Amino acid sequence: MAATLSLLNSGTSTNLVEPGETSPNASAGETIYPDWFLGPRKDDDGTMNEEQPGREDLIRWRAAKPSNFFRAIPQLASSIELRMGSPLSPRLEKELDTFGRDVALVIEPAVDVQERNREFPKLHSFDEIGRHVERVEFHPDHDVASKASWGSGMLATPLSFEGAFELAAQFFLLSHVGEGGQACPIVCTIGLRRAIEHRASPEIKDRYLKGLTDTEATTALRGSQFLTEVQGGSDVGANVTQATPDAEVPDAWRINGEKWFCSVADADLFAVTARPVGAGPGTKGLACFVIPRSLDGTTPNGFRLRRLKDKLGTRSLASGEIDFENALGWPIGPLDEGFHVAVDELLNTSRWLNAVGSTGIMSRAYLEAFTFAQHRKAFGVAILKYQAVQNELARMKLETSAALASTFALTGLVGKIDEGTATKSERNVHRFLVNANKYVTSIAATDVVHRAIEVLGGNGTIEDFSPLPRLYRDAIVFESWEGTHNVLCAQVHRDCIRLGLLNDINEWIAQELSHVSTTFDVERSHVVDALAALQPGVSESLAKPAGTDANFRELLTGLVRVVQATCLLREASFSNMDAGVAAASSAFILLHLVNQEFGTLPEWTKHTAAILIPSIPRGAQTHPQM
Ligand SMILES: Cc1cc2nc3c(=O)[nH]c(=O)nc-3n(C[C@H](O)[C@H](O)[C@H](O)COP(=O)(O)OP(=O)(O)OC[C@H]3O[C@@H](n4cnc5c(N)ncnc54)[C@H](O)[C@@H]3O)c2cc1C
């Protein structure tokens, strides 16, 4: 026994109970014997072709993983139906069903091959005979993933109310593979398309819109957006890249300067902020240009790719440093509105879709962890039977549900703005949420993937065992993209002071809560109380100079949690929504808006079992067994 205990204490085993003892986590009276104590392993006697105990469970886990992410997440369809105000059309349902399967069966394996074999983009500055080309080479599986992603049609969705939902739904499904070398190019292309469609001259529209909305990956034009310079990404007003009118080409400008973070370095069109000669300092003096990669189809248009960055995450995406030397570009919109073009069209699109992407990452992490917990045994039972594991999974699911709920509420506002029916107040709510929701959901994504890794135990940290390490790295990068947390919080603080956004958001919450079913009267009163409790602190913060109060970050987190709780309650009140969302909303409110006592199981966990009951897959008749 002494030898056994010393082995246990040395950390070489994860079974931290003495053989024959009752595990503290096992059901009452159940005696647990670790497998290794019971006798020699099957492979110890030379029969190496026999399966180890436990491997069969892993095989079953892999077989149980969803083969269609659209069917696996029924909340997606119901969130869309709630916010769109109508059932999914048969066309859209079929499209999402097909793409949900393609993401699982085509895109995921293609992304996985690149990551597992470290097949990341490579830079070739010169071709085989020494000509300057600045070509980025990808693994062939990158093209497989691109073909399926572009083929979904998401780049061609109309800028309309329904179009916003279609795009968000497809992008949510795609993000179940993380960034995957596809999400960033798609977001940048959509942002550039929106900028050109809304702001550019008819000539620029004629030249580029067809390519930007092409659904064939091999012929489509890919966009990118370069704002960040080495002196800072948050402080875009410090940009020193210069623009000078071209002496010969009408309406064209020559761009000179260095951009420090250039994702989609392989893009066909670069959207670039630069300061026209003679323009003033700060963001007011910035213009926004579109620069084609090449003017003749081969030779780089006045740029050098210094190097591709070796990144923590989003590794199959080519992110580089680029020097522009007399690159020929054309303005998108009036020169003195460049910063507005960059924020309203590029960054706001990216921030909205960043939240959609973070939600997809969370959803995938939950699916991985839940199916694993169903099949993985520890101390003789499936780990899903342990209350502590259930609580982790429930926590992950309620964060995912909340992010889906708030992000599809935001999608409805994007859609209304796109179709021109948004009121001034709805525009203000959009302005608040597009920043605040990105901040909260991107942090939640990292947290949820982290919890999923914990559920998988040591296996969760292994690169080829599951996609979780990749999702974790991507989620951290999503946090810094399109504005860091502090910068977004400072932006909302400024907007609340200058534009009075708080009144709009308070009214919007009240309006949303008025649609909540009386079944949730208790939960609704918790939300109302939490919002009221936040008001004095928020008012005090907003009395300080715009963008300066460090306390505002915590207050804003609280406001977003109130928004998410409200959105969840609306979803829970929707007739087509499954019971898991109702339980998630109650638990979310207890977890985030009602104080907890230490030393007891938190009150929210009383909803754990109801949260975890698998949702009815779309089209199925009954609940599958847990
Ligand atoms: C993989 C990757 C790809 C990228 N691709 C692109 C791209 O294609 N195009 C592009 O334009 N950019 C890109 N970026 C850059 C990204 O947008 C910036 O990293 C981001 O905007 C932050 O800028 P920064 O890194 O210079 O951080 P900094 O601005 O130096 O900030 C550093 C820290 O200081 C904090 N901080 C800054 N200002 C304030 C303030 N006023 N109050 C409180 N705290 C503050 C920030 O929150 C942050 O924590 C990419 C980044 C990564 C990681």
Report on this structure.
- This protein is an alpha+beta fold.
- Among the domains are: 2-53, no CATH class; 501-616, no CATH class.
- Helix content is 52%, strand content 11%.
- It is built from 20 helices and eleven strands.
- It has helices at residues 2-9, 35-38, 55-64, 69-72, 74-84, 90-116, 140-151, 161-174, 183-199, 202-212, 338-375, 387-419, 424-455, 468-480, 485-499, 501-513, 521-542, 552-573, 579-593, 608-612, and strands at 122-126, 132-137, 223-226, 242-245, 253-263, 269-276, 287-292, 303-308, 319-331, 377-378, 381-382.
- A five-stranded mixed β-barrel has the order 4-5-9-7-6. A two-stranded antiparallel sheet has the order 1-2. Strands 10-11 form a two-stranded antiparallel sheet.
- β4 and β5 form a beta hairpin.
- α5 runs antiparallel to α8, α9 (183-199) runs antiparallel to α10 and α11 (338-375) runs antiparallel to α14.
- Mean pLDDT is 91; it is low at 1-29, 36-43 and 621-626.
